[in-house]
Structure formats: structure tokens, C-alpha cells
Amino acid sequence: MKIGIKTLVIALTIAFMTGGFPAGAAASENLVIKGSTTVLPVAQKVAEAYMKERPDVKISISGGGSGNGIKAIIDGATDIGNSSRFIKGNEVKLALERGAYPVPFRVAYDCIVPVVHPSNTVENLTIDQLKAIYEGKVRNWSELGGPDKPVVVISRDTSSGTYEVWESKVLGGGRVYPGALLQASNGAVAQAVSKNDNAVGYIGLGYMSGDVKAVLVNGIKGSKETTLNGQFPISRPLFMFTRDWPEGKVVDFINYMLHPEKGQKLVEETGYVPLY
User: SS3 of 35, please?
Assistant: First the structure.
């Protein structure tokens, strides 16, 4: 039976809303997980706990960005593709052409937090101000009530799901100006901001540390509470995708991730927002 794109998108939407699928037949004892650097800390922490309970299973995890995670699922190069965004229509089309049926599992929530160097006196930025900064229209912190210093813009590369959410929710379809410094991961952004007094960047909540200072957005602090109640304006769900209906060890790991007292407890310990 030929499955149309519209049908698959509907199926994916249902899967996204329900967040789980029944187990199937046995799969490999080795699991490969690739993709989003935002989901990476969660996947690593849960994988470590899972392997302690299931020493017969070996899990290898790598980053590379949401786009690469979904591509790996489509190409059959990974068991699970991590993504901090939902799959796109053109990716669904490509998947169907290659005999794949990507299935999404919502595994956590996150918010994208603007960050500056701890020495920066700016405490709050509006969405419009962030948009102006990233489009290169604001070039000095004094225009925002900060020090008389140039703004150094740090952003993510275009394969990043974090970038795509930022582009949608902050830039409104606009583009980051050419002078921005692009980084390949949340960790790289945090490190770059921590080493530059004039820098501004954005990272997932789980990457927050004392090395950078979180900035309020529209007067709202990015947190578990403001993510769940919808007050923080730059929030998003996080996903794990499988190439088809998962089976064996793959679905066993997904179910472990979704378990309130196992994976979801570790999600919160990692600094992200659990589903429940």
C-alpha cells in the first residue's frame, strides 16, 4: 500500500501527541543514537542508567545537530535520531522515497535561553530586541541599556534544531546577519560566550551554568515552570525519532526514557523539563 505524505504527517502528529508505541520483535543488542546536541545530555544520562540495568546492551551516542539526526534515521544509519524540532515536510518526502516511516517520540521539554557574559549588566531583552541583535540592527550594548561595547553575536549553524526554533520564534523568518559567529553545539555557544565580555548567544536550559548569565525574555525567566505553563516565549518539545515502528531493544530504551520514575526523572536531573 502506497502511503502519502499527508497520511504520514497525520500519523506522525498522532504519534507526537500520544508519545508511545507498543513493543515489537527483538532487535540488535547494540543501539546507535545520533543527532541534536540539545538532546545529547539527556540521551547520555539515560543511556548510562539504562546500560547499568541492561548490561547486555551497548549504546553509542553522538551529536551533530537535529538535521543530521533525522538524516541518519532516513538513511538507516542510526537506531534513534535525536531532534530538538519536529520533522519537516521535505524530510518526510525523502524518508518515504527511501522506504522509511519516521516515528516521533516526545521525550522532554526545553526552553532556549539567551545568555551573555556574567559581567554584562543587561538583565532583560524583548523578542524584538533579540531579533534586532541577531539581524545586525543593534551593534552596541549601550543601545540596550548596557555598557558602551560592541555586541558580538554568537549563533548556531543551520543544521541545528535549536537554530531553527530560534529562527522561527525570535527572527520570525528573518536571517542572522553575516557577521555572527556560528557554533556547532550548545556547549560551544556557552563556551564562546563565557570567554567574551561582549558576546550574546542562546542555549538549551540544560546547558546553563555559572559561566554564563541567563537573560530574561520579555521579563520572563526561562525555567521548568515557565516552560510548562507556556509563559516563556522560546520553548519547544524535544524528540527521539525511529526509522519505523520501533522493536526490541529500541522500543525498550524509548519506554525507559518515557518512564516517569526512570528516564523522566533523569531528564529533570539533567536540567531539562520532564513530560509529567
Answer: strand
What is the rounded CA–CA span in Å between residue 92 and residue 54? 33
Q: What is the rounded average pLDDT for all residues in the chain? A: 90
Q: Which of 110, 115, 112, 160 is nearest to 133 (CA)?
A: 115
If residue 34 lies in a helix (H) or strand (E), which one and from where to where? strand 30-35
Domains of the chain: 5-109+238-270 (3.40.190.10), 110-228 (3.40.190.10)
pTM, full prediction: 0.79
What one-character DSSP code corresponds to residue 86? P
- Are the C-beta atoms of 101 and 3 separated by less than 8 Å? yes
Tens of pLDDT along 151-178? Answer: 999 999 888 889 999 999 999 988 999 9
Instruction: Specify which residues 58 forms β-bridges with.
Output: 30
DSSP 8-state symbol, 109? E
Long-range contacts of 4-11 (CB under 8 A, 24+ apart): 5/89, 5/92, 5/93, 5/96, 8/92, 8/95, 8/96, 8/101, 9/89, 9/92
**Dihedral sign computed on CA atoms, order 47, 51, 54, 57:** positive
| Of 68, 85, 89, 234, nearest in space to 164 by CA | 85
The 3-class SS string of 144-177 reads HCCCCCECEEEEECCCCHHHHHHHHHHHCCCCCC
- Reading the block at residue 187, the C-alpha cell is 556547549
